[in-house]
Amino acid sequence: MSFRSEINSFFSGGTPALTRIIVINVLIFLVSNLYTNFSPSQYLLTYVALPSNPWVFLHRPWTLFTYMFLHASFGHILFNMLWLYWMGILFVEYMGVKRFLYTYFIGGFAGGLLYLLVFGFAFPQPGLLMGASAGIMAVIMAVAGLIPNYEMHLLFIGPVKLKYVALGAFILTSVLDFSVNSGGKVAHIGGALYGLLFVWQYKKGNDIAEKLSNVFAGIGSIFKGGNAKKAKLTSTRGGRSVPDKQKRVDDILDKISRSGYESLSKEEKDFLFKSSKGKS
Known about the structure:
This protein is mostly helical. The chain has two domains: 15-211, Up-down Bundle (Rhomboid-like fold), CATH 1.20.1540; 234-280, no CATH class. Helices cover 66% and strands 6% of the residues. It contains eleven helices and six strands. The strands form three sheets. A two-stranded antiparallel sheet has the order 1-2. Strands 3-4 form a two-stranded antiparallel ribbon. Strands 5-6 form a two-stranded antiparallel sheet. 31% of the residues are buried.
């Protein structure tokens, strides 16, 4: 495969979404550091990081998105990408790529908006927000809420239930020593709140990601001059219609919530894995 073909495959979906997000974050980090080395001025940074000043934000609304791809140091991006990889893999396996992407980005938006609310209105102070932590915290909380008793094997510690891993990550990065990086920690809290809201609604049968996907599909159909195609619905669950395949996935997830991942049969594990690979 030629280099050009590899690039086209990367951006068109030939590379898994989780990998693409990590690679894009790393590339932007490298480019921004090169820029800083050649130009000590931070002028460009003010146009891509999220400002705490609401008036400035109104003139640069795109920063609510671009701030998620900026990182201040090697340690900052390293730990963010490691957490994103570890938790992203679990999220995609159990809930699919589409829900992962919506949770990650909306969690980032939620963190950015809470940062604006706190440091732009409640306790005004100048500052710039950057980093993917809010979106990552949304992913962590959502997957921990879905499979709280899933065991992760931590180095030097051994097996630890996911709910405790998530709680520990939240306390260490969002609560302790709040005077340091208070803006980032407020954003973490915003992302965590969205992740918990998403999984709470999801377990009640209300899929926020699916609804948003339908909204965007409807908007897209307006510009395409046609109607968005809808999946054939054949069963009901929790008062809503779902495809038979999705019903079985939901039944398996319920079983995990009740008895843990290890309670699944090999066939159920294989079905869940294949189902997550088939989602987009």
